Amino acid sequence: MPPLILVTPCQQAAGAEFADASISLSNRYTQAINDTGGMPLVLPVTATRDQVAELVRRADGVLLTGGEDIELKHYAPATPAELAATLKDVEPERDVLELALVAEVFRQRKPLLCICRGHQMLNVALGGTLIVDIPSQLQGALMHKQIERKMELVHDVTLTADSQLAKLLRTAHPGTNSTHHQAVACVADPLRVTGTTTDGVIESMELKDPARLPFLQSVQFHPERLYDRYPHFAELFRAFVRASAGQ
Fold first, then answer.
1. Who is most buried in 18, 37, 226, 232, counting CB within 10 A?
2. What is the pLDDT of residue 24?
3. Both ends of the chain: CA-CA distance in Å?
4. What is d(CA 6, CA 15) in angstroms, rounded to the nearest whole number?
5. What is the DSSP letter of 84?
6. How far are the Cα atoms of 20, 45, 116, 122 from residue 217, in angstroms, in the given order?
7. Is 115 helix (H, G, I), strand (E, B) or coil?
């Protein structure tokens, strides 16, 4: 059987059926898992803490996906009101769920891949902080929020030569897409930075001690929107699925 990958969705106030609170997830994530040998299962946002623990136990790997902003109370509760106003469509229930999910992944030692919001959530869950709004807080920043070009390579990332990501992508300077206005600020102690853009924004991280998990890669960009046209990004998903299969 292919390894079972637990995938986190967004939560939205009104979905297609009856306009109830619903989950939302781009098919790009699950297709990337399918195409690289895994079997995706979308996590219900109504899961209890005990159910999260059981779902992680049954899963072979966990994928934290993109989405909206993380509530400030989890990493910067004293943020001035003007800066706090830059946040958009926070997902409080999802925050609580994913904080519990990351804790369980580390407790049960399961492979973990984090993308965009997932990259930020990993850092927050492990004790790090975020830049609340890049345009407001980082002078001379690149344009990182280019939603209309989400399928395109819009800037380069410089990877450390000894990083797992550089080895997987077989380049130290991959071009990537960019669709975010927040970024990692203070890096959580268990993590190390492995990739940045020219303005210093942190684009990839991995564990200082790789033995803590069978696999961990965390990226700010969206490889699920690139892998079918830029095959080296598929190697990231393949490595994650292989680790989830115990290979």
1. 226
2. 93
3. 13
4. 21
5. H
6. 34, 23, 11, 10
7. strand
**Closest C-alpha among 207, 62, 233 to residue 151:** 233
d(CA 60, CA 39): 10
- Of 159, 178, 32, 23, whose CA–CA distance to 91 is shortest? 23
Decide: helix, strand or coil at residue 64.
strand
Structure tokens of 57? Answer: 């136990």
Closest CA to 69 of 132, 7, 13: 132
Separation between Cα atoms, residue 167 and residue 204, nearest integer Å:
13
Angle between helices 92-108 and 49-58 (to 10 degrees): 50
Say which DSSP state 69 is in: P
Helix (H) or strand (E) holding 107: helix 92-108
SS3 138: coil
Q: How confident is the model at residue 5 (pLDDT cuts 50, 70, 90)?
A: very high
Residues with Cβ < 8 Å from 70, sequence gap 6 or more? 90, 91, 95, 117, 120, 121, 124, 130, 182
pLDDT value for 17: 87
Residue 12 pLDDT = 85
Pairing of strands 22-24, 202-207: unpaired
